[in-house]
Specification:
The chain has 11 helices and 11 strands. By secondary structure, the chain is an alpha/beta fold. It comes from Rhizomicrobium palustre.
């Protein structure tokens, strides 16, 4: 919390973790002479009782001397991929609120248990170092429309059991969301399997510790990839020039990260391309099989015209696809 961005909002669903975070943040802000956090509670429109639960959250906030607002989703409730849809609704509403209030960050109550579940979910998907490093304490806001905000997770090293004991000491109630026990969701299935996994030594604390080790490795890889990008790329208007020889000389992991960063920079997409397609493009570049050009992530990749061969004959140009940009930076 030493470098905590402020002023801020805290997302409170009414569950034990978020209610505990509300009290902890309020106390921390008071101790440091900072404005109290604003409390936001999102009604996704998924359950009829959600409206009443949001009112309870606001009552708890007022009792703690905090101001807040219920943010209600006014569209139709999502019927498929409910977790992802609800997440998009939640961060869209909170992002708009935070920007209107000129806040720097939104604090959320992801815990050590959530970190462990995230690790297992991503392990099942075959994620690499970045995915298995888990959630970051400070990260870009999940909705790219609000890139001026950050999301803060100060409880990643705290267990849910510890937070519930804290609330018990305060004699503070909380709400159990029945969706957190719905076995249709993979995260819930993992949560229910955790007691058996813990018997094998795969406790939430151990899994979260592994995330920490991988997060340090990720940081080192990111720094090394920045160095590769600095020597292997060059800006050209809305496009970028890429040294395919330098890319080929770099270790594959660093080359893939550099290639992804270039594609993200040119396309403006805050997310990396899917690994399989990124690896296929890298393989084509390594083989020199790029003469006809390739497309990926809203970009076209091909040999640079002679006048733009900043790195010699090995220069590639990565530019926005023509149907996504009215400008072609490689034209004089």
């Amino acid at each position: 919390m030493r470098h905590a961005p402020w002023p801020a909002a805290v997302g409170v669903s009414g569950g034990s973790d978020s209610v505990a975070l509300m009290y902890l943040l309020a106390g921390w802000a008071s101790d440091h002479g900072l404005p109290a956090p604003l409390v936001v509670c999102v009604d996704h429109g998924l359950r009829p009782e959600a409206k009443a639960e949001a009112k309870r959250v606001m009552a708890w906030a007022r009792a703690a001397g905090l101001k807040g607002q219920v943010l209600a989703h006014e569209g139709s409730a999502p019927s498929r991929d409910i977790e992802a849809a609800a997440r998009a609704i939640r961060y869209g509403l909170i992002g708009a609120f935070a920007r209107k209030k000129k806040l720097a960050a939104v604090y959320v109550a992801h815990t050590e248990d959530d970190q462990a579940e995230t690790f297992l979910l991503r392990l099942a998907r075959g994620s690499g170092v970045d995915g298995l490093s888990g959630m970051r304490p400070l990260a870009p806001f999940p909705d790219p429309a609000y890139s001026d905000l950050v999301v803060a997770r100060p409880l990643l090293n705290v267990s849910r059991q510890t937070l519930r004991a804290y609330l018990q000491g305060l004699e503070q109630d909380f709400i159990d969301d029945p969706m957190n026990a719905d076995p249709r969701f993979t995260r819930v299935q993992l949560r229910q399997a955790m007691p058996e996994l813990s018997k094998l030594g795969l406790t939430p604390a151990r899994l979260a510790l592994t995330c920490g080790h991988l997060a340090r490795a990720r940081g080192a890889l990111e720094l090394a990839a920045e160095a590769v990008m600095a020597r292997a790329s060059h800006p050209l208007g809305s496009a970028m020039l890429l040294d395919s020889e330098a890319l080929g000389c770099a270790p594959p992991e660093l080359a893939l990260r550099t290639l992804a960063s270039v594609l993200m920079a040119v396309s403006g997409n805050p997310y990396r391309p899917r690994f399989e397609r990124l690896a296929a493009l890298y393989s084509a570049i390594s083989r020199g099989d790029i003469a006809g050009g390739r497309t990926l992530h809203g970009c076209r990749i091909g040999p640079a015209p002679k006048r733009f061969q900043h790195f010699g004959a090995a220069t590639l140009v990565v530019e926005p696809e023509k149907d996504r940009s009215s400008r072609n930076p490689t034209k004089p």
